[in-house]
Specification:
Two copies of one chain form a homodimer. Chain A has 430 residues and is an alpha/beta fold. The first copy, chain A, folds into two domains: 281 residues, FAD/NAD(P)-binding domain (3-Layer(bba) Sandwich); 144 residues, 2-Layer Sandwich (D-Amino Acid Oxidase, Chain A, domain 2). Helices cover 26% and strands 23% of the residues of chain A. The first copy, chain A, contains nine helices and 18 strands. In chain A, the strands form three sheets. In chain A, strands 1, 2, 8, 9, 10, 11, 17 and 18 form an eight-stranded mixed β-sheet that branches. In chain A, strands 5-6-4-13-14-15-12-16 form an eight-stranded mixed β-sheet. Chain A has a two-stranded antiparallel ribbon with strand order 3-7. In chain A, a hairpin with a 2-residue loop joins strand 13 and strand 14. In chain A, helix 2 runs parallel beside helix 7, helix 2 packs parallel to helix 9 and helix 4 packs across helix 9. Chains A and B meet through helix 8 and strand 16 of A and helix 8 and strand 16 of B.
């Protein structure tokens, strides 16, 4: 379905008053419009802005979705799952880009919460430790550094870990960032680069894509129609609005974006003064087979996450909160003495193969890619980690280049009408 | 310490401009000033207003303290504790006054959330059931109706009770009210009775009591000094500001009000449509010796409470929330499917014998009671239940009467300088 209603064709000739209105509403034009102001959309906009192009982010509530809940672990190594080696490559590439990405944004007075702290993966029961040991085999086979620790060694690093844990593994290279600070910082940086008082972020919801109606359905995308009736002309449009992407008007009809909401509950705690620092590393645990993570911030708060629910409820789940508090206390009993300051539930955009939908899309087997359209959604649990690589890759595409390493993440890989050059990134899953 | 600063004595004669300011600030005068707009203060004010007297409640945040957290159980029978039989008499008297109290307030369009639902006391383990059975012995000895239920009978009343509970006891006469609705309703009713646009509630903190400085320390209380520098003249002042009572200036120096904060965490949940009604009775459980209660509201929410912490922390406790969610799920497993909508922590004003500090106070052994002063604090976990009897008794005292039944709750029973006619209400505890 292509939304042409907001983009008058040259053939029509409206009443002068209507035309004036139309011109006013369409007066904005930028090089790149990014639909979606989560961390992915903001990161892409920042890369675009740094290249000297004009860019606008369109989002009624920037950084208010999954970004708002996210703990901000940059855990390429710890997040490795079996048969997701291509995703690992993307995660490691992004991890390597993080220092420069932060360097481009952070100043002494503008923090992002980026910390090169380490990560300890803890098994509560013997079976949990064995699962982590098995994962280590895969991690080592992929050349990743994971060091086994005895319970004593783990407690030397983190004295408040329970003496009853079963074992632990240290990952030096898994760090963290504060997604709320980072996204706020990017918005400020974008505003500073915006010219002539132009908005860097338009706080309106996008309704759909504008097309050049002089051609057929494979026509070039030329901008964005907003729900307030206004339009924004753009040379390139990046669709980065997470779960909202599939509902956007004007996407190619045959394009299947199989994103589904995977809800997560996240808890924020405050550590009383007498217990600080509670932890210095990120602690990722497996407790009776269930994952839980504890991410300490320098401001004395602690983030505990996250459930993965597909129950359709966007509310904070009692069962979820209970499980997280219970399992976090199994790993670090002193958690019971903390103050509970925030409960958050948000949906992550999940995909069938747990990999993002990232790149340009074709319209049919015969046609090439649709000009002016890039998609960047489906980052699931990895949006914060994958922001630098998504930003770099989208800028490459805008500059007319591609990167063969990431072609397997093409957003049209689940679309029947397109025979993909490359298979789905994780054969057997899709 | 008596605060005389805000009440110029007749001997002083300030500059005319100062006097004008002073008169403006002291222009208000009422029959009764109630310090504290929690449910107790509001209830007393309502009784006073109905008697035809003018009354003002002084509170910067009416109904924002323990009242805001309270679940509103009217559970005189279930709340009975060993050696607290005098408190039981007060609770039963208040329980009996509740229907008329509600009748005076509630209309079809002005609900109070009063419901004559029943209460089921549930024991999770055999030891919990035995503790409840032992309590029933005391309840029966006091003439109270408590009916033992088999697990099957309990689950016929409440089908979502776990089949793994150990036993249950039904109390027909323990009902509930919604303290937030009730306190909002009283404030509206007070405003409707207030004359000539006078405020029913002054949203300022009280600093202390005004005294008639022409006499000695046993002098009559004549009003209230507020922190904004204004004063309020009153024939009678009722001190009903909970934990704030002890810090009020102008109380007799030898009066010891031993109130301490007992913090409680309370959780509010929303029941999804497909699980309604989750419960129709109030469920009070004992789980491994720890109490937890589940109070269903007609709006589809559920209140779970409450911890008792003396750790000095006014923040929501992780350990407390975890315990409540865990134990509530032991009683009603479907709780895990509910939505968590609110966490609240508030301090209750506890006393050494768990009984309120209620009545007039003497100044020394020789003197009689201080005219113009009534104290009503220390209601601990029973403020909502005890509101009607506290209101009725305070009005009696204002009218010059006393009630021998409640003299043992005199607020000066812990004050060394006063030899009380009656002992502490629960001999051996104080």
């Amino acid at each position: 379905m292509i939304d042409r209603t907001r983009h008058p064709s040259p053939a029509t000739r409206p009443h002068p008053a209507v035309r004036a209105m139309s011109e006013r509403r369409a007066r904005r034009a930028v090089d790149v419009a990014v639909i979606g102001g989560g961390i992915i959309g903001l990161g892409i906009a920042w890369a675009v802005a740094q290249s000297g192009r004009t860019v606008v982010v369109i989002d009624p509530d920037p950084a208010g979705g999954a970004t708002y809940a996210a703990a901000g672990m940059l855990a390429a190594v710890s997040e490795l799952h079996y048969q997701e080696e291509e995703l690992l490559e993307l995660m490691l590439a992004s991890s390597a880009l993080y220092p420069a990405f932060i360097e481009s944004l952070q100043t002494a007075s503008d923090p992002t919460g980026y910390q090169r702290t380490r990560t300890i993966n803890v098994g509560a029961e013997a079976a949990d430790r064995q699962a982590l040991a098995d994962l280590r085999g895969v991690q080592l086979a992929n050349g990743l550094g994971v060091e086994p620790l005895t319970v004593r060694e783990a407690r030397e690093l983190e004295p408040l870990l329970s003496p009853r844990i079963s074992g632990a593994f240290l990952v030096e290279q898994d760090h963290q960032v504060d997604p709320r600070q980072l996204s706020a910082r990017i918005q400020l940086a974008l505003a500073a680069l915006a010219k002539d008082g132009q908005l860097a972020v338009i706080r309106v919801r996008a309704r759909g894509l504008l097309h050049d109606v002089s051609t057929d359905a494979a026509s070039r995308v030329t901008g964005v129609a907003l729900v307030d009736g206004s339009t924004l002309r753009a040379t390139e449009v990046v669709v980065a609005n997470g779960l909202g992407a599939a509902g956007l008007r004007g996407l190619p009809e045959q394009l299947n974006l199989p994103i589904r909401p995977v809800y997560g509950d996240v808890i924020r705690l405050r550590v009383p003064e007498h217990l600080r620092p509670l932890l210095t590393c990120t602690v990722r645990g497996l407790v009776h087979g269930l994952p839980v993570y504890l991410v300490p911030r320098t401001d004395g708060t602690l983030v505990i996450g996250a459930t993965q629910r597909e129950d359709g409820s966007s509310a904070v789940s009692v069962g979820g909160v209970h499980q997280l508090l219970r399992d976090a206390q199994v790993l670090v009993p002193a958690i019971s003495e903390l103050e509970l300051i925030e409960l958050t539930a948000r949906a992550r955009p999940g995909t069938p193969d747990n990999a993002p939908l990232l790149g340009r899309v074709g319209c049919s087997q015969a046609d090439g890619d649709i000009p002016g359209l890039i998609i960047a959604t489906g980052f699931f649990r990895h949006g914060v980690l994958l922001t630098p690589v998504a930003a770099q890759y989208c800028l490459q595409l805008i500059e007319g280049n591609d990167d063969d390493r990431w072609r397997s993440f093409r957003p049209d890989r689940f679309s029947a009408s397109r025979a993909l050059a490359s298979a789905s990134p994780h054969g057997g899953h899709s």
